[in-house]
Design a protein that fits this description.
The protein is about 15% helix and about 55% strand. It has about 140 residues and is an alpha+beta fold. Strands 1-3-4-5-6-7-8-9 form an eight-stranded antiparallel β-barrel. The longest helix has 19 residues. The protein starts with a helix and ends with a strand.
Length: about 140
């Protein structure tokens, strides 16, 4: 009889996890984007304005306030791990994938997105920061 109780509890918990992982899809557009591009010699950077980008963002709820997020753009996909920024209110998440950071206000859908890969690792990759707004699909 105990085995049946454990099986029922297990399947109930499993169905709750599956229901909690429903994705929220957002369409995000940069308002402005600036940063640095490698100079001609490849030994430093120069300031640059960038063309605003558009992203499709899919946020999946994991457990314990953690989220996974996928950002898709014409140049490819980035996979993030996210956490709530505020412990009292759950209105913003901070997401990163080691070198990129995406911070999203879940109430206003305003965001900042930064990329800082190049200089630290000695490669000629663009450094940038963008801000913008998302809309729900």
């Amino acid at each position: 009889m105990k085995i049946i109780k454990y099986i029922i509890v297990f399947y109930t918990a499993l169905s709750a996890v599956v229901m909690a992982q429903e994705n929220q899809v957002l369409y995000c557009t940069d308002t402005n984007s600036n940063g640095f591009i490698a100079n001609e010699k490849g030994d430093g950077y120069k300031r640059s304005a960038f063309k605003p980008s558009r992203y499709t963002v899919s946020i999946g709820d994991l457990l314990g306030g953690a989220y996974d997020m996928t950002m898709k753009s014409p140049s490819g996909s980035i996979y993030f791990q996210c956490r709530n920024i505020f412990t009292v209110t759950r209105n913003a998440i901070a997401c990163n994938d080691t070198t990129d950071n995406f911070i999203l206000n879940l109430d206003t859908l305003n965001y900042t997105f930064s990329r800082g890969f190049g200089w630290v690792l000695g490669v000629e990759d663009t450094l940038s920061i963008s801000y913008g707004t998302c809309a729900k699909f």
